[in-house]
């Protein structure tokens, strides 16, 4: 079976939680949510999934347990949560902006606001999902730091940005100065395409692999169990 671009994105998101153990996965967005549930059904069986309110849920959405808000905060503040957030802007050190475009005092565009991004990023691992990789998102310097990057995280015990997944590939910060590195490209994408769609100089290894292929079983789970209606294609086209 041939995988589509959206399915490679699902696989790349799922890999953020590989062998994670019993931690709380908090994916934001359709493709990260499918990815987290896929990880739970395959290589991360101890992963905890939440409905975002007060319940722990199974991959099919049925209740598995109660997660009171106090316990949710205890997991979040103690490094036992791994959230995958969106980003209106993200820079070379992983600083994320979801608040405004332009000067904070007089923005050109008002967005979500800072929300819980500073606490999230300083207290537990945070990855990012960007459905449209472009220079408007991957910028030299974010207009406002909401999610904290490596250059602002000195002394934060649980700060870690495992990966950034976009519709073009996977990026990480596995460099000496924790600047963003191209870890893989999705099949059909070139390194030059990623470079041209990025507003700063990426660290690029001599050889960049392709994002791994989904197994036949994973594709079956994605297409027939987790997302039979094909909602994933609304974030990333076929």
From TrEMBL:
InterPro entries to which the protein is assigned, alphabetical: CoA_trans_fam_I (IPR004165), NagB/RpiA_transferase-like (IPR037171)
What SUPFAM superfamilies has UniProt attached to this entry?
Answer: NagB/RpiA/CoA transferase-like
Output the superkingdom of the source species: Bacteria
Q: One GO MF term, please?
A: CoA-transferase activity
Keywords, alphabetical: Transferase
Name the family the entry cites: Belongs to the 3-oxoacid CoA-transferase subunit B family.
Q: What is the name of the protein in this document?
A: Coenzyme A transferase, subunit B
């Amino acid at each position: 079976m041939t995988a589509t671009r959206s399915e490679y994105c699902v696989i790349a998101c799922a890999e953020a939680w590989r062998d994670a153990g019993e931690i709380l996965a908090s994916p934001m967005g359709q493709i990260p949510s499918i990815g987290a549930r896929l990880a739970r059904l395959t290589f991360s069986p101890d992963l905890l999934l939440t409905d975002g309110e007060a319940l722990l849920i199974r991959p099919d959405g049925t209740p598995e347990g109660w997660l009171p808000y106090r316990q949710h905060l205890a997991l979040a503040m103690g490094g036992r949560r791994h959230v995958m957030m969106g980003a209106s802007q993200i820079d070379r050190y992983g600083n994320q902006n979801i608040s405004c475009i332009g000067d904070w005092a007089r923005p050109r565009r008002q967005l979500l606001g800072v929300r819980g991004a500073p606490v999230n990023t300083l207290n537990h691992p945070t990855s990012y999902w960007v459905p449209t990789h472009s220079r408007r998102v991957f910028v030299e310097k974010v207009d406002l730091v909401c999610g904290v990057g490596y250059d602002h995280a000195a002394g934060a015990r649980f700060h870690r940005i495992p990966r950034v997944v976009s519709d073009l590939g996977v990026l990480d910060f596995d460099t000496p100065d924790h600047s963003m590195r191209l870890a893989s490209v999705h099949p059909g994408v070139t390194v030059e395409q990623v470079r041209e769609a990025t507003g700063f100089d990426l660290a690029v290894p001599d050889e960049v692999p392709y994002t791994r292929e989904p197994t036949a079983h994973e594709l079956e789970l994605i297409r027939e169990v987790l997302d039979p209606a094909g909602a994933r294609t609304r974030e990333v086209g076929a």
